[in-house]
Amino acid sequence: MASAPTCIALVSGGIDSPVAVARMVLSGWHIVPVHCSQEPITGSEAEDKTAASLSHLIQSLDAPGSIDSNLRVVTVGETLAKFTEPESHRDYFVHMKRLFNAIGSALATDVGASAILTGENLGQVSSQTLGNLGAVEEASEFRMLRPLLGLDKQEIIDEARELGTYDIAAGPELCDALGPDRPTTVADLARLRQNEKAQGGLNDLAEGCLKSIRIRPLSPM
User: Fold this and answer.
1) What is the pLDDT of residues 90-108, one digit of tens each?
2) Which of 91, 89, 92, 109 lies closest to 38, judged by CA?
3) 3-state SS, residue 41
4) Are 184 and 132 in contact (CB under 8 A)?
5) Residue 177 pLDDT grade (very low, low, confident, very high; cuts 50, 70, 90)
6) Domain boundaries, the chain
7) Where are the extended beta strands (E) located within the chain?
8) Residue 121 — left, alpha, or beta (φ > 0 → left; ψ -120 to 50 → alpha)?
């Protein structure tokens, strides 16, 4: 019997990504979850909600072993702060997602994954406009899995409630702590690359973040 395909899941403390994880588990994928913590810019709330949502899914989904029992946590707060300079601040959220994809790609190589999974939903926030999704995806060395891409937000909320993750994830999102008031909605790839080059290059930034990686064991709730 062939083994299940593996993907790196970029899981936040929000509503969407646990729903994306559940959908791919039920489609037969093995999930290796990764959380990019924005500490010390924010606290540990997003990490705690991520761990709680995943632990709930491990218990509730009828798919033993489909979600890796270790959450990989990578600290990115200080690196993201580099993109609050005037030249790059309008692109902050796109740089953030590109950094996450570069981190996910590096880890995918290590664990033998063939794809990167996200909870992205078209048009929901500035980094998920049609004009920005391509620029975000360009930073991944692996194909992207976006099972929620075309769903209405209410559909995602309803699915999260059915899964039992909505109440865990509900609450204010903290990912915009350093974001601009008017983020770009149509990315300029040349500008993004120049901004990243000025900070040492995207791959080097990701490798620097990966030095902070730690394992948080997940257990059924």
Assistant:
1) 999 999 999 999 999 999 9
2) 92
3) coil
4) yes
5) confident
6) 6-217
7) 6-10, 30-37, 70-75, 115-117, 143-145, 214-217
8) beta
Q: How far does Cα 145 stand from its chain's mean position?
A: 11
What distances in angstroms separate CA 55 from CA 65, 100, 117, 150, 183, one per listed residue?
Answer: 12, 22, 18, 26, 34
Task: Report phi then psi at 117, rounded to 5.
Answer: -105, 135
Whole-model pTM: value is 0.93
pLDDT tens readout for residues 97-141: 999 999 999 999 999 999 999 999 886 666 668 788 899 999 999
The residue written with tokens 């899914």 in the block is 57
Q: In whole angstroms, what is the distance from residue 213 CA to residue 203 CA?
A: 16
d(CA 206, CA 105): 10
For the chain, percent of residues with pLDDT exceeding 70: 93
Q: Is the pLDDT confidence value at 183 over 60? A: yes
Which residue's entry shows tokens 């913590």?
37
For 42, counting Cβ atoms within 10 Å of its Cβ (0-12 exposed, 13-18 middle, 19+ buried), the class is middle
DSSP 77-138: HHHHGGGGSTTTGGGHHHHHHHHHHHHHHHHHHHHT--EEE----TTSSGGGSHHHHHHHHT
CA count, 13 A, side-chain hemisphere, 112: 5
The superfamily CATH assigns to domain 6-217 is HUPs (3.40.50.620)
Q: What is the 3-state secondary structure (H, E, C) of 185-199?
A: CCCCHHHHHHHHHHC
